[in-house]
Amino acid sequence: MIPEQTNIPLSFEGLGIKPGLLTQLTKLNYTIPTPIQHQLIPIAIKGEDVVGIAQTGTGKTLAFTIPIIQKIAAIKGMALVIAPTRELALQIDEAFRKLGSMLNLRTTVLIGGAPMGMQIRGLRNGNHVLVGTPGRILDHLQQKTLHLDNVHTVVLDEADRMLDMGFEPDIKKILSHLKKDGLQTMLFSATMPENISKIANTYLKKPLRIEVSPVGSAATDVEQEIFIVSPAKKEELLKRILTEYTGSVLMFCRTKYGVQKLARIIGMSGHTATEIHSNRSLAQRKQALAGFKSGRYRILVATDIASRGIDVIGISLVINYDLPEKAEDYVHRIGRTGRAGLSGKAISFVAPEQKYSVRTIEKLINSTLAVKTVEGITEKPQPIGNFVANKNKYAPKRRSFNRRFRR
User: Fold this and answer.
1) Any idea of the CA torsion for 379, 385, 389, 391, to the nearest 10 degrees?
2) What's the CA gap between 380 and 118, in Å, rounded?
3) What sign results for the dihedral spanned by CA atoms 345, 346, 351, 355?
4) Which of 337, 64, 363 is nearest to 215 (CA)?
5) How many other CB atoms are there within 10 angstroms of residue 316's CB atom?
6) Per-residue pLDDT of the chain (407 residues; tens, 9 = 90+)
7) Long-range contacts for 172-181 (Cβ within 8 Å, ≥24 apart)?
8) Going from the N-terminus, what domains does the chain have, and what CATH number goes with each?
9) In this structure, what is the dihedral angle of CA atoms 306, 310, 313, 319, given to the nearest 10 degrees?
10) Of 280, 193, 232, whose CA–CA distance to 376 is shortest?
């Protein structure tokens, strides 16, 4: 594994990027590489396989976009990028289009919710880059409307998320259609569970592992707080918080029905809100995201479909109205704020009986979440007292956590 480097260069020069591409980066206001870009780009340009471990908001999309475009300009052929969600696929496609405009780069997005006929026409026109979700890519392969003979580079983006969503069989089938000789594979993941390691060991050739932040770490520029609140008072607490914070807000609920209900409640409270979940069509989801980015809607309410792949600069607050089922998803959710060098804040609503869920999150991020209170709405944590305050002598660290909640 390549250790993280702290001395990041002040420009993209010296990373092996061709002058024409450097000029395009400057035009797009990309001036200083992030740590993962600094470490990964020179390796990927050499054609080596890479495993990149990085949290959201670290610039990994550009880290693989630059080497792919430079490779296509030199040897033609095609690249395939596989992503877990439609939103992330569209975001990646947008990055390729912007950076590759000078080369007349042709891309096609293969995602569910979009007409197959339009995608088939795009495939017939010839492409340099294909970006898609596993299910739709496999649909085209099975219908023989897609052939991957000319693919020289494949990217598995957000691989841990794809496996969580049950896409492992689809991914293996897609990879079986690729020629092994001369194939470069790049795998990106925010975490590195055992099943991801198995895929890397099976499909990548002596990959270099680049890790720019500890596995499971939360964004360092995000202030994190929790409120211990009963379900009956969550709406009241939410209204108080939305009045206090005036910037853009991304809110997460566990279910699509919860998202729909909250969006209505927020709208009736005088705030502008929109929603993203699986019941909405692709066009509706794109419209909602565009409205949130432009400022038409101040609040975006979403299921975990938006915890990855939503790249909006300047989100000031993330609210976990419902805690996620998996601790790893907490990291991805709050990673939507505090991006691109900006600070952010994350607030989580926690029921008194969810102390074990919070403990799991704290263990993952290696940090204690501050408990805040609102008089008359939230429940007060139990006083710590001398026994817990002097925990180094009397009690293990984990016991201090329990006393922050009512039993």
Assistant:
1) -100
2) 56
3) negative
4) 363
5) 17
6) 554 454 555 689 999 999 999 999 999 988 889 889 999 999 999 999 999 987 766 788 999 999 999 999 998 899 999 999 888 899 899 999 999 988 889 999 999 988 999 999 999 988 999 999 999 999 999 999 999 999 999 999 989 889 888 899 999 999 999 998 999 999 998 777 788 888 898 999 999 999 876 544 555 678 999 999 999 999 999 999 999 988 999 999 999 999 999 999 999 999 999 999 888 888 888 899 889 989 999 999 999 876 565 667 788 899 999 999 888 788 888 888 876 667 789 999 999 999 889 999 998 888 899 999 998 898 877 543 332 333 333 333 443 444 454 44
7) 173/138, 173/141, 174/80, 174/82, 174/134, 174/137, 174/138, 174/141, 174/148, 175/203, 177/141, 177/148, 178/80, 178/148, 178/151, 178/154, 179/148, 179/149, 179/151
8) 19-211 (3.40.50.300), 222-402 (3.40.50.300)
9) 10
10) 232
Of 88, 124, 114, 149, nearest to 304 (Cα)? 88
Dist. CA 343–CA 221, nearest whole Å: 5
Query: What are the backbone dihedrals phi and psi of residue 228, each rounded to the nearest 5 degrees, phi first?
Result: -85, 110
Q: The tokens of 313 are what?
A: 């600069």
Confirm if 45 and 16 have CB atoms less than 8 A apart. Answer: yes
Question: Model's pTM, two decimal places?
Answer: 0.70
At CA 223, angle to CA 222 and CA 225, rounded to 5? 130
Q: Give the residue among 371, 373, 351, 352 at the shortest CA–CA distance from 362.
A: 371
